[in-house]
Design brief:
single chain; alpha/beta; Arc Repressor Mutant, subunit A; D-Maltodextrin-Binding Protein, domain 2; 3 domains; 11 helices; transcription regulation; LysR_subst-bd; DNA-binding; DNA binding
Length: 334
């Protein structure tokens, strides 16, 4: 015997109405076919589900239990149909999302916030790897979508979509002479020492900086190397050396570091954030890509730049107890 959804529905309605005539009316059918269907159900189960009375029917103990279970089965079926349709539309499911560590401070949290607001039933599982590793994992299917910084050496077979652009700024120790500067020309930094990005960990940021410095007439003097932005800021906060970092990391507001905009050609110190996916991506990935396109200003960060916002707060008259005095005034270093 096949327990079809229609047969389960017929029994559930009859259990609710306890009357063949009223149940048949609700089901938009005549009474004899309904009676025959219930009899087939009882024969198939080998159980008496109803006691027929002169004024209707009464559920047996077995019938009452089966009615409750049948209603749950129908609800589960309706939920399954609705869920598969939501998954087909890309508004439910699970996406394996890859991200380079340097995007975890600004762009990733904003993307997660947009997704939670717009598609709350879509679950994002995040893993952090290098851009090269993520490109390979998107290609082999281990990752569905990846946020990376361009350039990436091997993008064969992948779809690449620009998500955001981000400038590079100079991070200086609190007491450094440049800490009070409104901006600094890149060519002015040839005599400074830096903590540089390790080539295997942050190759994109490293290449952008090295190329810009060469065009400005110098090669950065490396005092140390770091594999992540937190370590780079640690060296700078200690007063050991300066560092070049993505602008949005200024949102962290490190109390021992000042972030200074760099004067340079517009295209020299800008990194591009891109999303990598496989061709003919599934609906959930397509939904996320569309969210990135529509909400790019929110993910990229609109309004005043973080460096400017942070310095406006730091330059205010209010000082926390025990805080260091802020260098007074700002200047542009020439």
């Amino acid at each position: 015997m096949e327990l079809t959804p229609r047969l389960l529905e017929q029994f559930v309605v009859l259990a609710e109405e306890q009357h063949f005539g009223r149940a048949a009316h609700r089901l938009s059918m005549s009474q004899p076919p309904l009676s025959q269907a219930i009899q087939r159900l009882e024969r198939g189960l080998g159980v008496l589900l109803l006691e027929r009375t002169g004024r209707g029917v009464q559920l047996t103990a077995a019938g009452a239990a089966f009615a409750a279970d049948a209603e749950q089965m129908l609800e589960a079926q309706r939920a399954a149909v609705a869920r598969v349709r939501r998954i087909s539309r890309g508004v439910e499911g699970t996406v394996q999302l890859g991200c380079v560590s340097s995007l975890g401070y600004w762009h990733l949290p904003r993307l997660l916030a947009v997704a939670a607001r717009e598609v709350p039933d879509l679950r994002l599982h995040v893993r952090q790897r290098s851009s090269a590793e993520l490109a390979g994992q998107v290609r082999n299917g281990a990752v569905d979508l990846a946020l990376v910084r361009l350039p990436v050496t091997d993008l064969e077979g992948l779809e690449v979509r620009e998500v955001a652009e981000e400038r590079t700024v100079l991070a200086v120790p609190f007491g450094h002479p440049l800490a009070g500067a409104a901006s600094v020309p890149l060519s002015r930094l040839g005599d400074e020492e830096f903590v540089t990005a390790a080539p295997q960990a942050m190759p994109q940021i490293r290449e952008v900086i090295q190329s810009a410095c060469r065009k400005a007439g110098f090669v950065p003097r490396s005092r140390a190397q770091a594999e992540d932005l937190t370590s780079m800021l640690g060296y700078t906060a200690a007063g050991v050396c300066l560092s070049f970092v993505p602008e949005r990391i200024a949102a962290l507001g490190h109390p021992m570091v000042r972030f200074v905009p760099i004067e340079s050609d517009a295209d020299r110190l800008v990194t591009t954030v891109a999303a990598l996916s496989r061709p003919a991506a599934d609906s959930a990935v397509s939904t996320l890509l569309e969210l990135m396109r529509r909400h790019r200003p929110e993910i990229e960060g609109g309004g005043a730049a973080p460096v400017q916002e942070l310095q406006q707060v730091e330059d205010g008259s209010g000082q926390e107890a025990g805080s260091r005095p802020e260098p007074r005034g700002t200047r542009t270093v020439r």
